[in-house]
Design brief:
Strand order of the largest sheet: 1-2-3-4-5-6-7-10
Order of helices and strands: HHEHEHEHEHEHEHHEEEHEH
CATH class: Alpha Beta
Number of helices: 11
Largest sheet: 8 strands, parallel, barrel
Number of domains: 1
Radius of gyration: 19 Å
Structural class: alpha/beta
CATH architecture: Alpha-Beta Barrel
Strand content: 5-15%
CATH topology: TIM Barrel
CATH superfamily: Divalent-metal-dependent TIM barrel enzymes
Mean pLDDT: 90
Length: 318
Amino acid sequence: MSEIHDIGRMGALCSEESLLFRENHASFGCLPEEMGSVVKFGFHVSISSSIDKAVERAQKLGCDSFQIFTRNPRSWATKELGEGEPEAFRAKRAEAGIEPVFGHMPYILNLASPERKVYERSVASLRTGLARCETLGIPMLVTHVGSHLGKGSELGVERVVDALDIALGGDDSKVMVLLETGPGSRNSVGSSFEEMGRILNSIVDADRVGICLDTCHVFAAGYELRTAEGFEETVNSFEVEIGLDRLELVHLNDSVGGFRSGRDHHEHLGLGEIGLRGLGLVVNSGFGGVPMIMETPINDTRGNLGNMNVARGLVGMG
C-alpha cells in the first residue's frame, strides 16, 4: 500500500470513529473542541554530523517538539561537542520556536543493576547526560529505568532511587529526569505504575523527576488502551499510583507485540495492536496535555511525515 493511500485510509477511519470518541472524552479530562491545536507532536530525530542539524530535521517534519540522543546511544563513551555546536543548537532551536526539546539517555544504562561496575557507570553516565542537556539548553532528559537481573523488584527499586539521589545530588542544573515506562519484559523495573510510584515517592529531589509514558510499552506491560472502559482504568491507575501531574511526556507509538506481550517493538500509528482507537483515546485525554514524541519505524510502509499526518488526524478524531 502506498503511503498516500495509507494516510487517506487512516483519515477515513478517524472520521468514522469521531462520534464514538466524543461520547467518551469527557471522562478522561478533555473534549476534542478543547484540545484544538494544543497537542504538540514531534519525533526523535538524528544528531548525525552535528547536533544542531537536529533542529533543521525537526523543522522539515513539522515538529512542535522533538527528542534527541545527546550522544552515542549504544556506548559508554561521550564524545565532546564540537566548537560552537551548543551555541548553534540553542540559536537554531530559539529561531525555530520549537519547544520543549527532550534529551534521551543511551540504551545501555541500567539504574537498577545489582552489578557494581554497570551501576556505577550508569550513574556517572546519567550525571554526564544532565550536564550535556544543561549545556544545550534542554530541560528534560528521558532514561530507561533498567533491570534487576533476577534480584527482585524491591532491590531494583532501591537501586534506582539511590542512583537518582546520587546523580541529582551532585548536579547543579535544573534539568529534569523523566523515567520511561517499561514494556513488562522479564526482570524490568518501572513497567508497573506501582513501581514508578514507589520510586517517585522515595527520591530526595522529587521535583526533578517525572514520567515519560510510552504507549507501546504500557500496552505490552498490560495496561489497556484500546477501549474506553479499559483506557479509563489505565488513566485512573496512573493517577492513583503516580499522579497525572508527574507526566511530562508521552512517547506515542503503536505496538507490534500484543497486549501483555512484554515486547518492546514499535509500529506505525494505527498499524499495530493498539490501533487508531486506542491512540486516539490517548491523544484526546488528560495524557494529551503534554508533548507527544513518536519513535516509529522508517520503512517502505510509511515515513515520518505519514505518521505526523496520522497523529494530527487523531486530535478530535477528524
